[in-house]
Design a protein that fits this description.
About 60% of the residues lie in helices and about 10% in strands. The strands form 3 sheets. It has a 3-stranded mixed beta sheet, sandwiched between helices. It has a 3-stranded antiparallel beta sheet with strand order 4-5-6, covered by helices on one side. α2 crosses α8, α6 crosses α8 and α10 packs antiparallel against α12. The protein starts with a helix and ends with a helix.
Length: about 425
């Protein structure tokens, strides 16, 4: 029956020149998964998987955290690393997602990988490739389904063609939005999408971007960054990052500031500031910040600053020039500043929590008052039960009958005694 209906739709559309909507439902869930599985096999045959179990496990672990909050759970996601130095990532239909080894080299942190994978999960969750096939290749698909796959290009071929043709700008904007919410809801650095978007643009400007995958049909960089910054503002992410004209990036909350001025390799000062600000946000999601949890691991030429098990920032001797003797001493000074931030963050979070509690109590009180008012109104509108009144003539009749019967009994008694 489905084949007949699709064939009928195909004929009508050809005759009247009507294009069916992208959500025409021509591709079932089973077909989507099969398309993705076969496309995945083709990619693995072409590039091979990178032979590093620890890296494969790490990428899959990050991806599964993002998939769990994507809103689409009827499919089983997989995340793998392809053995190629290209900086790219691909999302096949059905949840088969790949990153290239070159991307991990260019974006080595979990934060950066989460930004990329969150974006790719967004494509799968919103079925962008499937919708693109249904919209752009609907005539071919209608014939394929109606003829059992003998009408032309296979669904798998259509999937591979759509994947390498790229996404529309609308789909890319949608994946950016989904990617942001995926990373935040999964507990990753909220600035992840901003970092990856900027680093990919840096690479594209150097001529290092591919023509598909992460680099296909993306919105203008300035527009894209503004859109992500809007999401950050809506989520009330703190501390915030302020970019200065001299290239210094400032992490700021209230009057507290922390400046980062040095680029390290391909990681600009701006991106390092996003890493620190976002990691501090992640730390405060666990509850009240404990100043004693800030620690430094000094490696000589560099030093890592942690909050508990969360890596906040790596500083180098380059950062310490003109400020401290070496990276370790500079990291210790930074830790002292972060402990000062802790008291400010705890105060702000308490104010925010108290405000949220007061607003919730107000909402509950308003709902209760509204309910009581509605109940009172219903009670007032309910008709009062009226006692049934007997007709006046009937009452007089029974009274007359009663008096008559009493009179008869009185006469009978007199007769009896005589």
């Amino acid at each position: 029956m489905k084949k007949i209906l699709l064939a009928f739709v195909f004929v009508l559309c050809v005759v009247f020149g009507i294009t069916p909507p992208a959500q025409a439902g021509m591709i079932s869930l089973e077909q989507e998964i099969e398309m993705g599985r076969e496309t995945a096999k083709s990619l693995e045959a072409q590039y091979g998987l990178y032979q590093d179990d620890a890296m494969q496990e790490r990428v899959n672990r990050i991806g599964q955290r993002l998939a769990a909050v994507s809103g689409r759970t009827e499919i089983e996601y997989s995340f793998k690393v392809l053995n190629h130095n290209e900086v790219n990532a691909l999302a096949c239909p059905g949840g088969f997602i790949y990153v290239f080894k070159g991307l991990i080299d260019y974006m080595p942190s979990d934060t950066e990988l989460a930004g990329v994978l969150g974006h790719e999960v967004g494509h799968v969750a919103k079925k962008h490739t499937v919708n693109s096939i249904e919209k752009q290749l609907w005539t071919t698909l209608a014939l394929i389904v109606a003829t059992g796959g003998r009408g032309g290009m296979s669904l798998i071929g259509a999937a591979q063609q759509a994947l390498f043709a790229g996404y529309s700008r609308t789909d890319e904007r949608g994946a950016d939005k989904e990617g942001f919410y995926n990373t935040v809801n999964a507990g990753f650095n909220p600035y992840a999408m901003l970092i990856t978007a900027n680093k990919l643009e840096d690479l594209a400007e150097q001529g290092g971007g591919a023509s598909y995958g992460l680099f296909s049909s993306h919105p203008e960089p300035e527009e894209r960054v503004k859109r992500i910054q809007k999401y950050l503002k809506e989520y009330d992410i703190a501390p915030m990052v302020v970019l200065n004209e001299n290239g210094v990036a400032t992490i700021k909350e209230n009057d507290w500031t922390f400046n980062i001025s040095q680029d390290i390799g391909s990681t600009k000062a701006e991106y390092r500031a996003y890493m620190l600000a976002g990691s501090l946000w992640v730390a405060r999601q666990r509850g009240e910040i404990n100043p004693d949890y800030f620690v430094v691991y000094d490696n000589g030429s560099s030093a890592h600053i942690y909050y508990d098990d969360i890596q906040l920032l790596t500083v180098y001797n380059q950062d310490a020039v003109g400020i401290s003797p070496n990276a370790g001493a500079y990291a210790a000074a930074c830790t002292k500043m972060l402990r000062e931030w802790a008291s400010i963050a705890n105060y702000n979070d308490k104010i925010k929590k108290d405000k949220a509690f007061a607003e919730e109590q107000k909402r509950l009180a308003e709902e209760k008052a509204k309910l009581e008012k509605e109940q009172a109104k219903k009670a007032a509108e309910k008709p009062k039960e009226k006692k049934e009144k007997k007709p006046f003539w009937l009452v007089r009749f029974f009274r007359w009958m009663g008096r008559g019967i009493a009179s008869i009994f009185s006469e009978l008694k007199k007769v009896h005694w005589q």
